[in-house]
Design goal:
This protein has about 260 residues and is mainly α. The protein has one domain. Helix content is about 75%, strand content about 0%. Strands 1-2 form a two-stranded antiparallel sheet. The protein is elongated.
């Protein structure tokens, strides 16, 4: 054997593959990390590079007990699921903000003005796209990307690769986060929806008082102006609320990861 040859133990390779699976799950689902605008090969390269750095810091766990390919499928699927759970916890907050913007935009009469969201490649209203940009800025301002990395590192401490076992606690917590998506959407859209409801009522009274006035066509412009005014007036509340929900995800992840075994 040549003295320059390097022999890597099989358990090290399996250990690295499990780390890549958990990290890759987070990179797929998390905001910023999983942005569709980033080429896939770049995301794969970043995942592999970070996994090389983490592999030496993470305990090997049960990787040495995996001796064949069929025995590797289940652990990789579980590692991928945990990574997705970590990423989705943050992504659901941003998705709720986008849904709230979509509700507000449709109520303002901008439902037909669809644009392509560069992050998800889906068609959304301009209001939803604007709310998403605000939410992403808040995500970076509260160091959401750091919270995700810290949660992932904590998951490796609580459950080394190959030792995972998901229970109803994690599933229930994730379902709670999914339910929180709709709460975020309603609370962000509520000022616009409430204000436009009052605007519709006022336009109806105006139509009764002045029948000659074409309220139907005038209502389009009035609702758009009123909607943007309400969005601007409620921006401080929106920023504060999104920031609180994003930082609260850290506690949610702490509870979810605490159940890993």
């Amino acid at each position: 054997m040549n003295g320059a040859d390097v022999v890597v133990p099989p358990e090290r390779v399996i250990h690295w593959m499990l780390v890549v699976a958990r990290l890759g799950g987070m990179m797929i689902a998390a905001p910023i990390f999983g942005h569709q605008g980033v080429p896939m090969r770049v995301r794969v390269a970043v995942t592999v590079a970070i996994a090389f750095g983490l592999a030496g810091l993470v305990p090997i766990g049960a990787a040495a007990t995996i001796v064949d390919v069929p025995g590797l499928v289940g652990p990789i699927a579980l590692e991928l699921g945990v990574g997705l759970m970590v990423g989705l916890a943050m992504e659901l907050v941003l998705s709720g903000a986008i849904m709230g913007g979509e509700l507000a935009g449709i109520q303002m009469g901008l439902g037909i003005a669809q644009v392509v969201d560069p992050r998800t490649q889906l068609q959304v209203t301009p209001v939803a796209l604007w709310v998403q940009f605000v939410a992403l800025q808040v995500f970076l301002a509260v160091d959401g990307h750091h919270l995700l990395v810290q949660a992932l590192l904590r998951s490796f401490e609580l459950a080394p690769p190959g030792t995972l076992g998901l229970s109803g606690r994690e599933v229930g917590g994730l379902l709670q986060a999914v339910g929180g998506l709709f709460e975020v959407a309603v609370r962000i859209a509520a000022p616009v929806l409430g204000g436009l409801l009052i605007t519709d009522a006022a336009l109806g009274l105006l139509a009764r008082a002045v029948p000659q006035l074409n309220v139907f066509f005038m209502g389009f412009a009035v609702k758009i102006v009123a909607g943007f005014f309400l969005l601007s007036a409620g921006l401080p509340y929106t920023v504060r609320f999104i920031g609180e929900r994003l930082t609260g995800v850290d506690r949610l992840l702490g509870g979810l990861l605490g159940g890993l075994h």
